Amino acid sequence: MNLLDDGATIPFISRYRKERTGSMDEVQVAKVSDTYEELKKLVKRKETILSTISEQGCLTPELEERINNCWDSTVLEDIYLPYKPKRRTRAQVARERGLEPLAMILLNQNDNHPAKTAEAYVKGDIANAEEALQGAQDIIAEMVSEDERSRQSVRAAFRRDAIITSRVVKAKAETDEAQKFKDYFEWSEQLRRCTSHRLLAMRRGEAEGILRVRIESDDEANTERLQRAYVRGHNMCAELVGEAVADGYKRLLMPSIESEFAAQSKEKADDEAIRVFATNLRQLLLEAPLGQKRVMGVDPGFRTGCKVVCLDAQGTLLHHEAIFPHPPIHKPADAMEALMDMIRKYRIEAIAIGNGTASRETESFVRLTLSTMQVSDVQVFVVSEDGASIYSASKTAREEFPDEDVTVRGAVSIGRRLMDPLAELVKIDPKSIGVGQYQHDVDQSKLKHALDLTVESCVNSVGVNVNTASRHLLTYVSGLGPTLAQNIVDYRTEHGPFATRSDLLKVMRLGPSAFQQCAGFLRIPDATNPLDNSAVHPESYHIVAEMAADAGCSVSELMADAKRRHNIELRKYVTDEVGMPTLTDIMSELDKPGRDPRNQLETFAFDERVKEIADLRPGMVLPGIITNITNFGAFVDVGVHQDGLVHISQLADRYVRDPNEVVKLRQHVTVRVTDVDLRRNRISLSMKNCSK
């Protein structure tokens, strides 16, 4: 917590402060950070509550102590509820009319003639004894609904047996919009067993006016339980109290607890959906890069043709033009000649084709062109277009390519995404990348926080070349942010490439604290000091220098000689500040300095027999690519412009609790078609008994 308060980032703490955290990983450090923030919010809330109650003159030493010692937000709000400012309720009106003493008489249940007693309160705008008794019952009803024990009792019942139900709005049942919610037209299950995706689906249907969703408990049993707690006799007072308790439950307490459980279940579902989204995003961002090669990017299309761009090894746009190999214009010969010319002229090493409209047809045409050219060393890849259209119309794209239209920018994004998915995807809002579910239905601030942490984690785990990285990539480097990222780019433009990490201190506003946070994650290839191209932090350079001196060689020679490194006795370099975790990390980095943790890229080809969903038949075994993973299964692209679902029960021959146990995003798999629903555009797949 001290490190966080000092401005240290989660990647920095988990990577370079292991001695202070007991080698906690990023997930654990993030959990500490999130819990710390929640506790700080709770402290502020307690301060507000204490102040409000104090202003009312109701704060006793016992109440103050209880609030100060409370660390459960639900219990805290229960304590505060009777004192919480609220709109004028029926009970408040009754109190203003002087009926609270009558309510206390009823609660005592010792008066055998409450109607006669109530006559003493018939004055002002109270017309008769019945009206006075009703006002007293309103006060009791509110007291019951705000009582901590009452709330805990009903809360326990909801926690134990609450049912979530979903019913279709009859007027909407036959509409096309309603069909995607057909599974929930008549749905009921225990709330505690309701999965994240089902709850979010029902809530979306409710938001769209197609479903009515309720969370219910056994109202009769709950009312009887409360009445047993409040009703002590068998006289008329007891009967009136029983009625007030039932009214308090139905009108106030039950709706309040239902809303509470609706909010809690939604929050839990949000957290699960965000966790799945963040896991998928991490896998996508860490997808294998092709690397620095000359790439052709193709944004396929029918009517408007295919936009083709040629990029150099650094991703710089060299050339673009449109070709028309498909109907309606259909000039395949001209398109093939143009493609051949570009491949030769720009010495293209790989071709990236977007996976949108006309993707399969364009891939076949490109492979035919390469075959005609008798070229075998140009690899062809189909690349996800998710988010490319968002990028192409964004301010970022306009700044990069002010003179090009959106189609050119989109094709550039497709090509660059093949070269380095991480560097390109950081320019796009993570919500637009298409690897989550219900991302627009969950808590947006929580989602942004989780996705930003994920992007930051991925960028820092890979490391960034400070001399080639875009402003957007640098923004996610530990300790930088948008302003310092732009300042680095500006300095680089004015003064040329950085020669050493220490040159970063010359950047405007990049002081010692920011340098400490970012330096270990920035790389400078071909630097004079080879450690500048490694994950060894500058604060540890002296340790490596000492190791090299003890080994009788230079730092470069130590990094190149595994035998010398093997002979180093690490414990010799342990100090009060530097322990074995840091030393072990240093040695690991010296073994493979600046190693990219991402896998090698593999080529892939769809089955030529299928190009549209109508081509699919149950029983077909096809190659596919995992495009999205949810907690109920995985979606697979088999090349028909509509992803199919492998339900979690069909992922493996064994029981699977989490789909991530079996598959990863962008993984190449073999699937079997089990069902095709053309009306709903749904494809059901299985991976059981299919070779990977």
Annotation keywords:
28 helices; 692 residues; five-stranded mixed beta sheet; alpha/beta; Tex N-terminal region-like; globular
- Main sheet makeup: 5 strands, mixed
Strands ordered across the widest β-sheet: 6-5-4-7-8
What sort of overall outline do the alpha carbons produce when their principal axes are compared?
Answer: globular
Q: What's the CATH class of the largest domain, please? A: Mainly Alpha
In DSSP terms (H or I, runs of 4 or more residues), the helix count works out at 28
**What is the share of helical residues?**
40-55%
Radius of gyration: 33 Å
> By helix and strand content, what is the structural category?
alpha/beta
- How many separate structural domains? 5
CATH topology of the largest domain: Tex N-terminal region-like
Number of strands: 15
Q: Quickly give the CATH architecture of the largest domain.
A: Orthogonal Bundle
Determine the oligomeric state from the structure.
single chain
